[in-house]
Structures are given as structure tokens and as C-alpha cells.
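User: Please predict structures.

Assistant: First:
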Amino acid sequence: YKRPMSHANYFGQLVIGPAGSGKTTYCKAMQDHSESISRPIKIVNLDPAAEYMPYKCDIDIRDLITLEDAMKEANFGPNGGLVFCMEFLLDNISWLEEEIK
């Protein structure tokens, strides 16, 4: 199978890890590097609990739901709220698909 030439190739990185492992620092460095070589990228934040981003997020789950809202609405603690947010994202996956387009 050959992909038609009209379709662009897209690549992605999924950056995951525990708190304090350098995810934010890495994403900021990737954005700075990409800008320095004039290569456009889009950064997607899927952390509904993120409070500070030193870089621009092109797509942000916090535009759909935040951990704070989930905890208040469903009366969950932080862990239950995070699970609720991920389930909410799955239930509204069309939002993410449209944002990526």
C-alpha cells in the first residue's frame, strides 16, 4: 500500500513519568528546539491537574475538564478525580480528535 502524496506524515511523542521526572522541562526544550529550526510542532496536554506550563499548549485537556472541576462535581479526591477526567476524555474523544485536526 502506498499512501497518496497529498497526505502529510505526522509523528508524535508521548511524554509520561512521575512528578518531578522532567516532563515539563523536556517539553519546553522540545518546543524551543523546534522553534529554533523552524519545524512546527503541536503540544497536547493531557494532564487535567497541571497548574503551570512554561510552554504553549496547542491542545489542552483543561479546556475540556480540570481536576478541580471533577473533584467538585463528583465529590472525588485527587486520585478519583484523575480517573474521572480520563473517563470523561474517553467519553468525549471526539473533542480531542477535532482539536488534533
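Second:
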Amino acid sequence: AWAAMSASETMIHLQRNDELPPGAATFRDNRRRVDFVLVYKDETDEATTETREYYHTNLRRAGLHIEEVNPEAEGEPDDDTNFVLLHAPFEVLLAKAEEMGWKIPFSAIEDDESSSKSDSCFDCLPLQTPLQKHKPKQVYYTGFFHREKLGIYLNHDQPEKFFTSAQRSRLVYDILQNAQFSDNGADIGIDRLLESEVYDAAFPLHEGPAKPAVVEDSEEKHQETIRQELQQHWARWGIFYKYQPLDHIREYFGEQIAFYFAWLGMYTVWLIPASVFGLIVFIYGLATMFNDPVVDQTCGAFANETIVCPVCDSCDNTTLAKGCTYAKLSRLFDNELTLPFAVLMSFWATFFLEYWKRTTARLAHHWDVMGIEEEAERPRPQYCVAATGHPQRPNPITGIMEPSFPISGRVPRFFTGWSLITLMFTLLIIFIVGVIVYRTIVAVVLSETSLGAEAPVLSSLTSSVINLVIILVMSFLYSKLARKLTHWEMHRTDSDYEFNLTLKMYLFEFV
């Protein structure tokens, strides 16, 4: 993802404008900012071309400006890649933000006390990045956006600073998701076009290159873009031990990505004490390996003289010393500290979950996304299309009339979907039981042949390979089925859709 800007800029020769935010790419007129890019290759399929032109027409009707760039026409021979640059005027962004019910900052908070006490305890340690020390992000009071009250919001007189890059991309993406690409009302959304390969890619651009430009023989310091700041002070191995600049990540990528990195960072930190205690358990087992009675009996002189029963009728007798290596390896991970380690990890999991809930609530309050209710979310475009022809109902939060799919039509879909999911679970359990039966039968059959000594290893190895193939095939088929069924169940919002899809995938992985 970090290389997307550099690669695209090299191929389509994007322009720059000093009046725009640093690194922002523009159209050929050097005024309109590029908010999104669609990519496709030249082909002779007339139906695909007509679909693309129909989609472009609807994007223009939605208010987007379009500029197509052909590298071959720009002097790049043997390059059949075409780029469709999209720009959303300020008025279009304002209308879309009001339609989506966004909260926009209108006043700065002077004294922000959102940081926890535990953070202040480590201020003396070199754990903060320069972004957090010298460029902290201002916190604002926000309110639902209304165009008639534009003058009360911050930066209302600076259109290029009113929305962040992440916000502009999200607004344009919503337009792309709601635009039709055929006369059929169900044919909407850029995702459908990507699946059908009408476009090869669709993405927003990064703000400028990953590294700042070097200006020789100049004392003026080049202004870094937020991308370059994150590249320098976050996305580097050399500063892995420092806190993550979550506020800066949120500004550039949005809240959803920022929450992901917040969880990833907290999970990594919490694994440190667990790994330290696990290492202690391992070292203790290594230090006491030769003092263990089981290892002593299995590896001592007595073991070489002790004959044990053969593993099969045609196998030769073996000595007790043959299990010496297995006894030593078992001692490393199964010793007196294993039980305390298991108890500690059970407490660790509970405390980790509760602390993550606390962290989520703190960040949600800090970023002002805590009060978002599911009813306030806009319906999914696919839901709106499927609900066409059914009576509309007012939203319980906003009061706006919106499409509604009747419960009498959703209940049969729900039960049919979960019936198929149950059938997939049953097939998976049957396959697992079949692998266990296969392992037992193969071990018994091989024990009566010349491979009797290797029967346990061979049966375990082949059953593991079969089990792996079954898991891979079933995971592929189930993921496809889960997405189809979740789409078919007609969930109203993206949050409801993602929750039901995640639940299906989790249950399958658990089984």
C-alpha cells in the first residue's frame, strides 16, 4: 500500500499544487485534487466498455469530475493500462457528509484529559515518537453536520482543509458504491465491477512519496506530509519499541484502521510478560532435565538393559532407552511450572479482554465515535436495491424515510442460511471423524506388515496431510458460502453485515 502512490505517480505523471495540502496530486489543470483512481486495461469487449461508460456517466451525475489518463498516449509505449482520476468538488463532499450523518469539529478542546494515568507514568522513558511529543493532534468538539450551518464549523473557509484525506476518500468511495453501472437497479457499486473485472483496481492515492524530496544547496526545510511523518516515525523497524501515534494514524487512515493498530500494539505488549514466563518454564525444564526421575529411568544405564514389548507382532524387541529423546523433549514443556503457567494464562486472557474494552472506550471517547448507534447508520446500497418496491419506513434516530425489507421476507432467508451453515458444520465433523478412523485403521494395517515399526509415524503423517487438505478446501468453500448467505440474508447496515459474517467465520474456525 505504501508503494501505491509512487508507482501510480510514475506511470501517470501527476501534477502538484502548492496551495493544496503537501503531496496532494491534481488533474492536468493543476487545481482539482485527485481523490480516487480507477484502473483498467484496454480490451475489445464492447459490453465491458459500455458498462464502464454507463458507470462514468452516473458518476458525473453524482457530481464527480473525471479525467482519463492513458500512459501510451502520454509517451509510454506498450502500456495498455488506463487510469480514471476522480475529483469530488467541495459542494459534493458537503452534501455527502450531511447525507451520511457525519460529525464535524466546530471548536477545539483546550485541556484534553483523555490520556490515562498509566501513560503519564512512562513519560520519562524514551517511548514516545517525535510526532507525539512535538506534533500532538488537537482534540475537538464535534456535531452532526448541516450545510445551512456551515459557518460554525472549523476551516469552513478553507475547502481543502475541511476534510482530511481519509474522509475525502471515504466520501468518494460511498459515491462509487451507490452508482449504477447498468439499467438494472441491482447493478450498483465499485465492488461488483472489481469482481467482474470491469476494473482492475480502485484506490485512493497516498499524499506524496514516502520520502521527502531532497533540495540541494537550500537552507529551507522541506515540509513533510503526514505520510512521510508516519513513514519516518512509525513504519520503521528501528522504532518498534515506541508508542504508536494513533491520532496521526487515525487522521491519515481513519478510525477503523487506527483501532486495528491500537489492538495490534496492545496485544503485542501484553504478550511480553506471557512470553517471559513461558521462557522461564522452558529454561526451568532445560535446567532440571537430567534430575527428572522419568528422564533418569529412560536414559540411564538401566534403560539399555530393559526390554520392552514390540509395537507389532512382526517387530523386533526394543529397549527402554529408545524413548530417551521423547522424554527429554517432554520435560522441556511439561514440568512443575506448566500448571502455574496455564493458570497464569487464564488470568492473562481475562485481564487482556477487560483492558482492551477499557482502551476501546477511551479511544472511542477521544475520537468522538462512541455515540454512534446502528440505527443511525445508512442502509447498505445492496439492501436499498433489494428493498425497492417495499414500503419505506422512517429511521428511528434521524426520522428520514429509508428503504425497508419486510421481516416476513428476512426470516425464511435467515433460517435457510443457518440450515446450510449447520449442514457445513455436520460435513466438517464427519470429515474429522473420518480422518480419525483412517488413522486408526492405517496404524493397525501397517502394524502387521514390514513397516510395523513406522506404523504410528506413517499413519499420523498421512492423516495430518489429509486433514490439512480437507481444512483448506472446506475453508475456501465455506468462506464463499458464508459471504453469499450473509449477503442474501439482507442485513440493513454494514455493521450488522460484518457482525454476521464474522460470526459465521468464527464458528467454522472454532469447529
